[in-house]
Amino acid sequence: MQSLFFTIDVSTIVSMKTHLINMPKEQLLEVVTVGEPHSTALVFHHGALGSSENMAPLFREAQSRGIFAIGITRPGYSGSTRREGRRTNDYFLETQAAINHFRVEKFVSLGWSSGSPAAISDTQDNRCVGAITIAGDAPRVSADWHSYIEKYPPNNGTSEDFEMPSFDAFRSCSAEQLISFFGPALSQRDSETCEGGASQELAEAMRRGMAPGDFGALDDFESDGAAWGIDLGKVSQPVAVFQGDEDRMCTPAHGHFLADNLKNAQLIMETGEGHISLMYNKSKKIIDAAVEFLNRG
């Protein structure tokens, strides 16, 4: 595979290199990287409605340690061609293309929010030595999912159901608008994190991710609402499940479900953290866990 290469300049995030990798059926896969290519790497999967820029705190932490990191732009977002019908069980195909391109021999996969299913999907590749979910989605169609919602209700008394703006609004979202867009879905610490500068990075990620159209988000929502097609109990790699107990978008039930159903999982419940603040405030701890998996694998 060959790639086109250029650099994006976004002042609020680390300097990333963007690559377009040729895929089968004339499709393109956009990946962003920090650091020099290496035989070991961290692979990042972004959240819905965005692009790899919304993983900025993890890229910063990786860059500060000299770690090669690869951000996978899911099909339909930004520069990645749509792959209609994609599902959790085949998300690893894009990761394989990227790690083959950079000749990576060992990696840890990290996913935030709707990117977490992709991190679990990557465990199907034997070069993946561990996975980390961050405020991640659990398979809501599982037979016992509702028992988790009942057993682990949100600490703040809210639910995951909230009215979202239109996709067009996200496509032109400004940093100032982001907090009002998500409104009650943000915990107090989420709002503080956004006001502290995160909203600029997240808004940029939304504008870039949603620029080509709605299919990235629509395909995410469709996939999130379908069966994963992965037997969580057979995942052999270690998994760290980071969860904020004040998360209103992926409430604590998600973290408990993943930790209980994955074979070798550890739940790291962070007091007071929400959906956004968890990644920003705990980026060092998250990368520490990823490095431990790399060293152990």
Short précis:
The protein is of the alpha/beta class. The chain has 11 helices and 9 strands.
> Radius of gyration from the CA trace?
17 Å
SS elements, strand count:
9
What are the secondary-structure elements, in order, as H or E?
A: EEEEHEHEHEHHHHHEHEHH
Side-by-side strand order of the widest sheet: 1-2-3-5-4-6-7-8-9
Secondary-structure map:
Elements: E1 3-8, E2 16-23, E3 27-34, E4 40-45, H1 56-64, E5 69-72, H2 92-101, E6 106-112, H3 116-121, E7 128-134, H4 145-151, H5 167-171, H6 175-182, H7 188-210, H8 215-224, E8 239-244, H9 252-261, E9 265-270, H10 277-281, H11 283-296
Parallel strand pairs: 4-5, 4-6, 6-7, 7-8, 8-9
Antiparallel strand pairs: 1-2, 2-3, 3-5
Helix pairs in contact: 1-11, 4-9, 6-7
Domain AB hydrolase-1: 41-281
InterPro entries: AB_hydrolase_1, AB_hydrolase_fold
Pfam family, one: Abhydrolase_1
Can you describe what's shown?
The chain is α/β, with parallel strands linked by helices. The chain has a single domain, classed as Rossmann fold (3-Layer(aba) Sandwich). It contains 11 helices and 9 strands. The protein has helices spanning 56-64, 92-101, 116-121, 145-151, 167-171, 175-182, 188-210, 215-224, 252-261, 277-281, 283-296; strands at 3-8, 16-23, 27-34, 40-45, 69-72, 106-112, 128-134, 239-244, 265-270. Strands 1-2-3-5-4-6-7-8-9 form a 9-stranded mixed β-sheet, with helices on both faces. Helix 1 crosses helix 11 and helix 6 crosses helix 7. The radius of gyration is 17 Å and the shape is globular. The two termini are 27 Å apart. 51% of the residues are buried. Residues 1-12 have low confidence and may be disordered.
